[in-house]
Structures are given as structure tokens and as C-alpha cells.
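Sequence in, structure out. Go.
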Amino acid sequence: MSALQKLQEKIQEWKRDHEALITLNENLKSQLADVAAAQKENESFKIELEASKDRCKTLEEEVAALRRELEEKDAEIEKIVAQVEALLS
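Output:
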């Protein structure tokens, strides 16, 4: 085999390797884009979760305030009932 043939074979091998690397690079870029999209979606979910937690905390505080108000109203009603009973007796 002549030196020219060996050189041509080596060039063909390098071309095949180069094409394989191009394909691999394209695949890696695609995977990276997918990962970036998944991370962005994950971040959106985290933000949404935090907002939901904040709304939940607000609702819990409102429920607690309404319970306190209900207890106050119950006490007032009991006081009024006691006054009415006292007046009737």
C-alpha cells in the first residue's frame, strides 16, 4: 500500500470521525436544550408552589381570624341570653 493510499484512508477515517462528532454534538445540544427547558419548567413549578403556599397561609390566617370573631360573637350571644334570662326571671 502506497503512502498516498494510506493518507487517503486516514483522511476518510478522519472525515467519518468528524461526521460522528458533528452528530454527537447535535445530539448533545438537543439534550442540553431539553434539560434547560425542564429546568425552566421546574423553576416555574417552584414559583407556583411558593405562591400556593402563601395563599394557603393567608387562608389559614383568615380562618383563624374568623374563628376568633365567631368565639367573640358566641360570647356576646351568651351574654345577651343571660341578660334576657335575668330579665325574664
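Check: The mean pLDDT is 96. The longest helix spans residues 3-88.
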